[in-house]
Amino acid sequence: MTVPQGPVAVLVGPPGAGKSTIGALLAERLGTGYRDTDADIERTAGKPIPEIFIDEGEPHFRALERQAVRTAVAEHSGVLALGGGAIMDPDTRALLKGLPVVFLDVELADAVRRVGLDKPRPLLAVNPRQRWRELMEARRPLYHEVARAVVATGDRTPVQVAEAVLEALGLPRTTGTIAVPDTPDTTQ
Ligand SMILES: Nc1ncnc2c1ncn2[C@@H]1O[C@H](COP(=O)(O)OP(=O)(O)O)[C@@H](O)[C@H]1O
Ligand SMILES: O=C(O)C1=C[C@@H](OP(=O)(O)O)[C@@H](O)[C@H](O)C1
Ligand SMILES: [Mg+2]
């Protein structure tokens, strides 16, 4: 009988925490697959997230997200990054219980600077600082509720964050890459 093992790491946190960036890096480090539920939703809907919000509204997006998380948790054994609002759904929070979930924490100033440079996020399209603060106030307890570990990202590079996540989850910090010896082999 095959026992489903679930993802090796699940990243949660607000927009700009670095879930997608660190998720891909982590997967590379672990030599495993990477999956992002936002990408899954866009593939299912056949359009980018901002268009889903405009055409069908946020409740429809949340329904797609809920299903995307469920499917990814069932199918994927590598690193999984969720969208920032996925943990608002109570069923999703229940599903995450017992999984190796890491809350990537970030302060307002860093998050707003980061998302300002990146793809559009419909929830932050207008008055992003205030919106982000409100989102985080409502969600912070929920990130803590689902997380096995919390990793601060503010003063760390993506590589440093990825290493902190590996350490927090007790995962190996090296890949299967063949180690390069410190000294050249001079025996020949
Ligand atoms: N630790 C970090 N330091 C600096 N920039 C970062 C860091 N983590 C992510 N970024 C940058 O922030 C932006 C948002 O990252 P992203 O991974 O999309 O966040 P999330 O998926 O949590 O919303 C990207 O441009 C990314 O390169
Ligand atoms: O916080 C949110 O509600 C959202 C975060 C986004 O993902 P990131 O957290 O990866 O930016 C994306 O799922 C959507 O725009 C809604
Ligand atoms: Mg993301």
UniProtKB/TrEMBL annotation:
Instruction: Specify which residues bind ATP according to the UniProt entry for this protein.
Output: 16-21, 121, 156
The record's annotation in InterPro entries points to: AAA+_ATPase, P-loop_NTPase, Shikimate/glucono_kinase, Shikimate_kinase/TSH1, Shikimate_kinase_CS
* The protein's name in its UniProt record: Shikimate kinase
Describe its assembly. Answer: Monomer.
Coiled-coil region(s): none
Q: Which residues bind Mg(2+)?
A: 20
| Gene this chain is encoded by | aroK
Q: In which pathway does it act?
A: Metabolic intermediate biosynthesis; chorismate biosynthesis; chorismate from D-erythrose 4-phosphate and phosphoenolpyruvate: step 5/7
Pfam families given in the database record = SKI (PF01202)
Name the lineage: Bacteria, Bacillati, Actinomycetota, Actinomycetes, Kitasatosporales
